[in-house]
Write a structure and sequence with these properties.
The protein is α/β, with parallel strands linked by helices and 358 residues long. It has a domain at 3-193 and 225-251 and 312-327: NAD(P)-binding Rossmann-like Domain (Rossmann fold), CATH 3.40.50.720. Helices cover 42% and strands 16% of the residues. The chain is built from twelve helices and twelve strands. A seven-stranded parallel sheet has the order 3-2-1-4-5-6-10, sandwiched between helices. Strands 7-9-11 form a three-stranded mixed sheet. α1 (12-24) crosses α7 and α6 runs parallel beside α8. The mean pLDDT is 97. Nicotinamide-adenine-dinucleotide is lined by residues 7-8, 10-14, 33-37, 39-40, 60-62, 82-84, 86, 101, 105, 131, 133, 163, 186, 188-189, 195. This is dTDP-glucose 4,6-dehydratase. Its cofactor is NAD(+).
């Protein structure tokens, strides 16, 4: 039986991870530490908050004394670190929070883990798993090979730079102090509970309310999309079977231009409305309710400064070494995601009206 401390469990991937892990490892106990920033939402934990295996702690990863007390009090052996500032646009307008949470916060967790697990010798078989991003590798030209674990770091946004710094700190605590660490670097995720500032949920909700679908520049930037539980599947494998001190890229070999992703999403909504007349009465402001394609909402806007052209993940290492294989393809994953947003209207309405933080 493992005892996990999961940071950032009230965010998008963390919330999915908690449910994913518990289904596969029902005997484990999980404590989650989350500061409930704008991106953290206690409603994401509604289905598990009262479970005996679960404890929610409202607090910051920058609070070393709190982290040390949680490691001791709950006899934690595995720390899974999701907590971060994660939105590139926000890192451009306000980088300080990214430095504080992603760099100082990660370092604070490392110091706490080293103190309790190594200096006080409380857990020989501990693991610190760090969740990171493919954005640390920078950008690719159209014909460049996909990022592998040996691709040099070349972060281009303050978000990517702060994650790169945190990756280096995690690595250094392994090499210098012997902290048992693993790191995973994943491509763009999508799925339930994603905050509607990111491309897919933003476009879904805008289609339903008849608002513009903003596309940066000409929309040709390429991202490699992975369904969130396929990311969690990779993290679980790395935690259980990964080699200490190693990094593993997680991806689904699913490169798509942003404009193609939005066009596909529009087509899926057009078909949903055509097949289910109830949707037109639930969402009368959507063009789909009047038989007009959601594509009419697509609006090109000024590009993000320094916008990376292409990300692509080479996941050969995790596939060959740990037997990783994603389960969802893009159509099945998108349809699951659309189902979830249609079935959880009160969840996203409470974000749109701000009541989720009360
Ligand atoms: N979303 C993606 O596509 C993607 C892809 C690859 C890697 N990642 C990484 O995965 C992790 C999770 O991403 P996400 O999309 O779920 O992010 P998110 O923004 O949805 O959630 C972040 C969570 O961290 C919490 N948090 C922020 N600062 C904190 C602090 N100081 N102390 C405690 N909790 C704090 C927030 O309240 C929130 O619950 C991040 O580390 C991110 O870099 C994300």
């Amino acid at each position: 039986m493992a005892k996990l401390l999961v940071t950032g469990g009230a965010g998008f991937i963390g919330a999915n991870f908690l449910q994913f892990w518990q289904q596969n490892n029902p005997d484990d106990i999980i404590v989650t530490l989350d500061a409930l920033t704008y991106a953290g939402n206690k409603n994401n934990l509604a289905s598990i908050l009262n479970e005996s295996w679960f404890t929610f702690v409202h607090g910051s990863i920058c609070d070393q004394a709190l982290v040390e007390s949680l490691l001791l009090e709950h006899d934690i052996d595995t720390l899974v670190h999701f907590a971060a500032e994660s939105h590139v646009d926000r890192s451009i307008t306000g980088p300080d929070a990214f430095i504080e949470t992603n760099i100082v916060g990660t370092h604070t967790l490392l110091k706490a883990a080293k103190k309790i697990w190594i200096n006080e010798n409380k857990k020989q078989h501990h693991l610190f798993h760090h969740v990171s991003t493919d954005e640390v590798y920078g950008t690719l030209a159209a014909d460049d090979p996909a990022f592998n674990e040996d691709t040099p770091y070349a972060p281009n946004s303050p978000y990517a730079a702060s994650k790169a710094a945190s990756d280096h700190l995690v690595r250094s605590y392994h090499h210098t102090y012997g902290l048992r660490v693993t790191t995973s670097n994943c491509s763009n995720n999508y799925g339930p509970y994603q905050f509607p500032e990111k491309l897919l949920p933003l476009c879904m909700l805008n289609i339903l309310s008849g608002k513009a679908l903003p596309i940066y520049g000409d929309g040709t930037q390429i991202r490699d999309w992975l369904y969130v539980d396929d990311h969690n599947r990779g993290i679980e494998l790395v935690i259980k079977k990964g080699r200490l001190g190693e990094t593993y890229n997680v991806g689904g070999n699913n490169e798509r231009a942003n404009i193609d992703v939005v066009n596909l999403l529009c087509e899926l909504f057009d078909s949903r409305f055509a097949a289910d007349t109830e949707l037109a009465s639930r969402f009368p402001d959507s063009p789909c309710a009047k038989g007009i394609s959601a594509k009419t909402l697509i609006t090109y806007v000024t590009d993000r400064p320094g916008h990376d052209t292409r990300y692509a993940i080479n996941a050969t290492k995790i596939m060959n070494e740990l037997g990783y294989a994603p389960v969802e393809d893009f159509n099945s994953g998108l349809n699951k995601t659309i189902d979830w947003y249609l079935n959880n209207e009160s969840w996203w309405r409470s974000i749109l009206d701000g009541s989720y933080q009360q």
